[in-house]
Amino acid sequence: MKYHFDELINRKNTGCVKWDKAFPACDKDILPLWVADMDFPCAEAIQQALKEKVDEQIYGYNTGFTPAYRQAVCGWFSKRFDWEIDPDTIFYAGGVVPAIAYLLEIMSEEGDGVIISTPVYYPFRKKIEATKRVVVENPLINEHGMYRIDFDDLEAKMARNDVKGMILCSPHNPVGRIWTKEELLKIVTLAKKYDKWIISDEIHCDLVQKDYEHQPLLKLAPEAKDRIVVCTAPSKSFNLAGLQNSNIIICNEKWQKKWTSYVMERLSLNGPNSFAIAATIAAYTKEDSEQWLADVNAYVDENDAFARACIQQYLPEAIISPRQGTYLLWVDVRAYCEDEKQLEETMLKEGLILDEGYLFGEAGKGFERINLACPRSIVETCVKRLCDALHK
Question: Model pTM?
Fold first, then answer.
């Protein structure tokens, strides 16, 4: 490993939501392992690209998605996933969550049903409800921490006339599944059978354990490109969320025109800022950035092994889901505390700010989501506090 991530970098009072949110008063120092960003410094190549942009001294209007930018995005996914993207199908949004809101406006009408596989990333539900669509849950089947899709239920929901499509989380946040090729193709088959669309959130695609491989949905099912939109971003992979840039892959020409009309013309959201462009190109084209990402994945795997071993030793009745992708640990602690509000209060007393499982839906009650993308010493303190709190 070129990069090592044990250094503690003080992010307090820097305006970062992870550390500077207004947390409840607590007798202990706050330890936030909730929102999904990393407490790691960015790759040197990205830092250098941003410094060079600063040195230009003038920060006027930029030209947006240049051929060099589009080629950087296409080159990354070609090299990493053997997925060939048409550069003209890349559209800008300031993040995957706002992109989902735009897509719901473009691809459905008020009152339409949209499927989500719960427990799942909670902004999905929020954006469906905010756009006056209807959440249709396809609960995942939990087999002692290992989750799988209930395809009988999914087909029943797909068959409904009021349901227009599905938001797929791939890799899945929070349960950590990397969906297999067979699982993904079954989803596409159902979408084709019942004429539904799929919005595939693949923002965690680069954050994968060494024994697993992410499958881009459009690569697997190019024949279904007119019913699939894939949401990607450098933000999770390279810790660039504050630069607010994502790349939305839209092949359907009707939706492209609607995106242009609604997002670009009506909302005037035409492209990323100059610093996001520089950082994204450096992330996707520099060997140093790729090395950094490999080292992050290795370090997170080590954090996972450490946390898993400690929790299993001191909380033997807790169930930890296998983490195939993301840098998030999903832990079932219902054996120690069944009431989700009491569990949250218990964590707060220890100064632990985690993403409480109930946020992800009814099926998440009694779970904790722990962000492992931080120095080992922070993980050690978190696990100790977690075990102490639940023993009490």
Answer: 0.97
